[in-house]
Write a structure and sequence with these properties.
Blueprint lengths: L28 E2 H14 L7 H11 L3 H11 L2 E2 L6 E3 L5 E3 L11 E2 L3
Parallel strand pairs: 1-5
Antiparallel strand pairs: 2-3, 3-4
Length: 113
């Protein structure tokens, strides 16, 4: 019926993903620092639970443009709970939470030359 692991009801549309809302880091951050935070998250993400192949698909979607990201999550069977990809589920009901910093850049990003 309405549980996360149930199949989709005929006529019900999948949630379309969109870019995350603008956000600020607690302090100005450089591109290098942001990339380090992202790498650290993705390196440890499978340890939070869920399946590695779903984490890999979510990483690919987070690093792709919106149209391609939609195709990635659809083909991986990811159930998008929040349109900005911050909360997703797999077909078995495992929850995947992505921090905003892996999905977009903060407003207060310091561009390095």
């Amino acid at each position: 019926m309405g549980c996360v692991g149930s199949s989709q009801i005929k006529g019900e549309e999948k949630k379309k993903i969109r870019k995350p809302k603008p956000w600020n880091h607690s302090q100005p951050i450089t591109n290098t620092q942001l990339n380090r935070m992202r790498d650290e998250f993705w390196d440890t993400a499978p340890h939070y639970g869920g399946r590695k192949e779903i984490w890999d698909a979510l990483r690919a979607a987070a690093e792709a443009d919106i149209a391609f990201a939609q195709a990635i999550v659809d083909s991986a069977g990811v159930i998008v709970s929040s349109a900005d990809l911050t909360t997703c589920y797999d077909e078995r009901g495992a929850k995947y939470e992505l921090p905003r910093y892996v999905l977009s850049e903060p407003i207060n990003l310091i561009r390095e030359s």
